[in-house]
């Protein structure tokens, strides 16, 4: 009977997972708005844009048409490489965190895929791609355990954005995503089954004493 009770309890306590994000940059103020090639440094980030045409543009923060966002716009046949860097302290996540990765809230990308090349203290860390025609999606890019160990120590995190000529991209939030296990709350019906099982154990115990 005890074995049956343990099995029943295991069925009731079904575990799930809850996703969370530690924000590195919400692309709020201080704002940046410029065209062509330029460099901007403030207390949050450094942005360098190397553009092939003076009409390629980048907007961050309150100057953005979508509000709190980073927007890159290149006309047909034009291209720009956008480099961002942040100075990070040591990063700490819950000890039971899983599925750790970089997170990007992509408001919109055009038909061109966008490459993401991350570095830490100047050394290559990881590379990913935002698919073309991504609209209103939160994307997580998984990091290996060694990549996370390197990143979690902190330092200068760099991100290079680039795509085919004419690429456009709008990003809202950039950060680190992870999952933490969550114990599911038993439903009333399941609790009733456990109660019946406990009652059965009590009855069996009284019979053995008798």
From TrEMBL:
UniProt xrefs under InterPro entries: Ice-binding_C
Q: Where in the sequence is the signal peptide annotated?
A: 1-19
UniProt keywords, alphabetically: Membrane, Signal, Transmembrane, Transmembrane helix
Q: Which Pfam families does this chain map to?
A: PEP-CTERM (PF07589)
Does this entry carry the keyword Transferase? no
Annotated transmembrane regions: 188-205
| Identification of the protein by name | PEP-CTERM sorting domain-containing protein
